[in-house]
Amino acid sequence: MKRVFFNKLFCIIILLLTITNCFMFAQTSIGAHGGMNYSFDYYDYPNSEGNLSGPSGTSFGILYESDITNFLYLQAEFNFIPRSQIETNSNLITTGTITSTSTYLELPLLLKWKFKDISRIGTPFVYVGLTPALYLDGSQADWTSSKPVELSKFYDFLFNLGAGYEIKLNRIISIYFDARYFQGLINKLNPEAPWIKPYRQTTRDFNIGLGVKICLTCPSEYKEIEKAIEYREKENIVYRQTDNIDIIGKIRDIKTKKPVHAKIIFEDKNGKISSVTMLTNNVGNFNYLLPPNSHFSIEISSKGYFTKNDEITIPSDFAEKSLDLIFELSPIEKGEIVRLNNIFFDFNKSTLKPESFKELNKLVDFLNSNEDISIEISGHTDNIGSQDYNWTLSNDRARAVADYLASKIINSSRISYKGYGSTIPISDNAKEEGRANNRRVEFKILSK
Questions:
Q1: Element (H, E) at 325
Q2: In what order do the strands lie in the sheet with 263-268?
């Protein structure tokens, strides 16, 4: 009766937690996972002890995940694990091995920390939790007769630690892999067979798994940014100063002059203030406070438009309390050609220098935000050297850029490349300044 009562009570608690998560938290996911389970239990009979160890089979389960803060998540699971172990016995009378089998259900309740912004490919995480477990259908061979002996159902609570890595395939679907360690806390078994006395067993498991998650309420990119800003404000990380100048900005389409809803990133060129991300309102307006004697870079992006980079400088003697600014974004159109600035190679080689990665990562973000676009990377040289040499160098450099981009996005077939040598100059090759301008890398919109 007690077991039935506690079983029902636990189910009610899990149900209430799930319903609460649905109403309290903004981002919820469901998923499924499987893995390999390795057990190395220790048991203690009266006048006897031994080990249950070895691969215990596969594990299967489903999960439910909700966010608590921008980096802290609550995860509940329902796992099914069939076990088959080799039992090594050692006592005063006999020594030997037998096979022990059992099946148990786990209901882990975990707190998960996600370390965001560490890697551009995925998100590492760690978690800690408590796992109620119900053991079912246990049996083992008797030492004297080798006949199966049925074991009664019993409960255990497992403390568990884990770590893993999550890779987001798109806004909704993610895959992850993890490793977990479980340590039993109750450690009691009660065999129903009258000729075997109750004994104590310490459960210890190690599990390696792979899973997939589907986000039920994942917000858009803009909603995610709004939530991140909300968390940042709650944690008092947003910079504020009483004598700041109010930047009153407007984002609009360069052709139609209509307002554009956009994401804006401010970054202090002097490194005194951490970067801040914000959004315009629905009519393309934004406000931000900047201190006097400051120099900020600004990056503006919106789906369907080319990313715009600009700078804002506030002199120390700026007398006004506000500054009105208008930024115009160019819509993405087929055939449009954009120059990639700050792309550097080793002299006469196609090896990208590390200082090029910041600019290329911006293009990666652009491609990930506009998943229907395909581009061609084009390499260009000046007219110094033979045509064959210039064509080869420009083609190799275009390929180096394309390979870097392809390694950062999901569908690499969207990227092609071509070297044009010195055949498409944009400045006069008679002067060094013109030749430097002709040595460039560009991308062209092939489809949208």
A1: strand 322-329
A2: 276-279, 263-268, 294-301, 308-314
Q: What is the C-alpha to C-alpha distance for residues 426 and 438, in angstroms, rounded to an integer?
A: 6
Cα(58)–Cα(323) distance, integer angstroms: 63
Q: Which among 62, 163, 184, 39 has a CA at the least distance from the CA of 113?
A: 163
Cα distance between residue 259 and residue 257, in whole Å? 7
H or E segment to which residue 217 belongs:
none
Give which of 414, 340, 336, 418 is closest to 377, Cα–Cα: 418
> Which residue, chain included where needed, has tokens 């959004």?
279
pTM equals 0.45
CA atoms within 13 A on the CB side of 368: 19
154-208: pLDDT as tens digits: 667 888 899 999 988 877 888 999 999 888 876 555 444 444 455 566 777 888 8
The CB density around residue 242, as the number of other CB atoms within 10 Å, is 6
Selection from 133, 112, 128, 108 nearest residue 185 by Cα: 133
Assign residue 335 a region (left: φ > 0; alpha: ψ between -120 and 50; beta: otherwise).
left
Q: pLDDT (tens digit, 9 = 90+) per residue, 336-385?
A: 999 998 899 988 899 999 999 988 998 998 898 888 899 999 999 999 98
Pairwise CA distance, residues 19 & 27, whole Å: 13
> What does 13-50 look like in DSSP terms, one character per residue?
HHHHHHHHHHHH-S-EEEEEEEEEEEEEEEEEETTEEE
Tell me how far apart the alpha carbons of residues 81 and 9 are, in angstroms, rounded to a whole number. 22
Cβ contact 150:171 at 8 Å: no
Type of residue numbered 356: S
252 sits in which H/E element: strand 245-253
Element (H, E) at 410: none
CA angle 196, 102, 98 (to 5 degrees): 60
What distance in Å separates the CA atoms of residue 221 and residue 411, rounded to the nearest whole number? 19
Structure token pair of residue 386: 């033979």
Q: Residue 55: phi, psi to the nearest 5?
A: -60, 125
Query: Which two tokens mark 153?
Result: 């159902």
